[in-house]
Amino acid sequence: MQKTLLALGLGTALSALSFGAMAQDGVNLVYWSLWNEPEPGANVMKSLIADFEAAHPGVTITPVWNGRQNQTTVRNALAGGTQIDIMDSDMDGLKGGLAAAGALLPWDAELAAPAPGGEAGTFGDLFYPHLLDMASNDGTLYQIPYMLYAYNIFYSQGALEKAGVSALPEDWDGFVAALEQVKASGLNGIAVESDIAFYNIKWFNYLIERVAGPDFLMRATEDKTGETWRDPAVLKAVELELDLWARGLIPAESRGYQWPAGQQTIAFDETAVELVGSWLPVELADTVEDDFKWGAIRFPSVEGGLGDVNHVEINSHSMAILASSTHEAEAREFIKFIASTPSQQRYATDAKIGVANRNVEWAPEVAAARKSLDEATLILSENHGIKAKYPDYSTNVYEALHNQVFLGSITPAEFVDQMVARTKEFWANRS
């Protein structure tokens, strides 16, 4: 019944999206995608492309499945003169990349237009509050978010039940105590992937936010002397995350895990939790047993800190139109179709992915992530804005040095000293 209703809704949306004069027959939109072809996200996109083409006989869409390095691949192709109409990438990467470079078309004039498919409100009303502001470059929107992920602490309900833990507390001391109970039961507490620095950085991101507040990371990054990194809050945050290793809550062998080795231990109920984006249940869908139960909590508060448990960090995927596209009208209609509620519901239902359209119900596996966003009083972008504003610094300084201290190859004091020196060097090279 649900699939029947969804199909009817999608047909209505497609019919309504046909308004206005689509360009002449024979238009081919070239879409370079961040999805890998076998992924559930790619499968849903294929079905949506087919539906759009069926409703617009003169328009075809040619997808190219490039995977997560899509923006880099698109950049190289554009430099070689390849014609591309539509692409997608992670929101903050796109904001600091092709959008900042002026290579994308703006969307601001479309936001006040009626929502696609005859829905109430405007096109801009479809999205989570403030998400479009976060996606904008200096007040201009060059991308349309369509996937939305919350960074939460995901857990195996089965593992917690085996350990006799009825619920994970959302305060740090209670959280650590619960994981001690998990460890005492013979299970591992926390899964990590040693080679995924942008996963591991979330421990520090959240801890420094909970200790020093949501603006600390940007202040430290933009201090051209680098000295803000000597704030005692930095050492406190590092020591809290390293204490997880010292207690054995993160098993020592995790230092050798390469993705997806760590998360696989959750699927097998050997490990209780992982701090990661809400794509995790999708990635493990073919590995877990049919009766596997997911849960998630917000990152815990730290006593006496300036942050808040209702501050949630996100990741989003967005679609964009290349400024060099010769089929702007058709490209806009296709992206509006992808952002429409029926299309977004198909992603949420069939691929079990969180979506940017706030009218859509998320799958049970990620319902807790949706709840954390609904209750959030502040949404934080990746690395609290650093990734979008200073992408090289974010990856090559901040994430890289953190991964070294997180895995134990440098000490907390060395981390602080190197962050001071590398931040100062970064700004000296920009002047």
UniProtKB/TrEMBL annotation:
Residues 1-23 form the signal peptide. Keywords: Periplasm, Signal. InterPro entries: Bact_solute-bd_prot1, SBP. GO terms for cellular component: periplasmic space. Pfam families: SBP_bac_1. It is found in: Periplasm. It comes from the Bacteria. Gene3D superfamilies: Periplasmic binding protein-like II (3.40.190.10). PANTHER family: ARABINOSE-BINDING PROTEIN-RELATED, BLR3389 PROTEIN. Belongs to the bacterial solute-binding protein 1 family. This is Sugar ABC transporter substrate-binding protein. It comes from Devosia epidermidihirudinis.
